[in-house]
Amino acid sequence: MTVQKSASLLEMDHISVAYDDGRRVLDDIHLTIEQGEFVSIIGKSGCGKSTLLNVIAGYIRPKHGKVLVQGHEVNKPGPDRGFVFQDLALFPWLSVLDNVSFGLRMAGVGKQERHERSREAIRMVGLAGSEHKSISDLSGGMKQRVAIARTLVTKPNILLMDEPFSALDEQTRESLQEELLRIQKETGMTVILVTHSIDEAIYLSDRVAVFDDQGRIHNLIQIGLGKPRIPEIRVSSYFNEYKKQLMKDLRYDFQEEYESQGSGI
Ligand SMILES: Nc1ncnc2c1ncn2[C@@H]1O[C@H](COP(=O)(O)OP(=O)(O)OP(=O)(O)O)[C@@H](O)[C@H]1O
């Protein structure tokens, strides 16, 4: 294993990815993330956001460049990086407790320890008391909490989340955002979130990386709203300034097209 000097927790070192058809999906992504940071990735559908999470997780090897975690090159998945998938991938026939403890069971962890650790993860996501409920009896928000608990149970240092709240109604979504910030504070984890929601990216993040259509980082925005975040910040003028900036960044290609036509209405 190559060990390199790196002050950062996570370094994406000039990553490029092309799938079998040869089309480049990520192009020279260079980004470093520090311990305890919350970074969101936002960009149009198909710009390579999920691919980047998969590279960090170790499921996809980049064509060029590398990912370093604390100076160690990533070449396979590991327990230091937990992944919360968009489609949850829960086992509907198992209870909450059995879903959360499934990974530990597969890893050969004994019953007492896996149940203790699973109950702790279930508590962390606010589902204490629901351990023996069946997945099919849960609401969408509760299922999402189970999916997060199942990842937290392995105590990852880096939590990778691919549009985890996209299927939820706004109120549930906002309450899960609060929970996520609380969990991050409690654990000190680093979170990398892929989202399509500008508001979600601003509210949760220390930095937001805006991707362009070519799989490059178009802009990297520091969100100086302070932490802990208070819900009222969502309606502040500071928040709106970031929103305007992100909307502009996400629309940059329309703007370029418009300007190149030299049109004025
Ligand atoms: N396994 C694969 N083989 C070939 N092409 C793929 C594969 N996975 C993804 N792609 C293509 O790579 C591009 C980037 O996909 P990716 O899922 O990373 O984008 P995304 O930004 O996460 O999109 P969305 O926001 O819609 O989830 C897309 O054009 C997609 O069709």
Automatic annotation (TrEMBL):
SUPFAM superfamilies membership: P-loop containing nucleoside triphosphate hydrolases
Signal peptide: none
Domain of life of the source: Bacteria
Domain ABC transporter: start-end pairs: 10-233
GO molecular function: ATP binding
Pfam families the UniProt entry points to: ABC_tran
Cross-referenced InterPro entries: AAA+_ATPase, ABC_transporter-like_ATP-bd, ABC_transporter-like_CS, ABC_transporter_ATP-bind, P-loop_NTPase
Keyword set includes Phosphoprotein: no
PANTHER family assigned: ALIPHATIC SULFONATES IMPORT ATP-BINDING PROTEIN SSUB (PTHR42788:SF13), TAURINE IMPORT ATP-BINDING PROTEIN-RELATED (PTHR42788)
Protein name, UniProt field: ABC transporter ATP-binding protein
Phylogenetic placement of the source organism: Bacteria, Bacillati, Bacillota, Bacilli, Bacillales
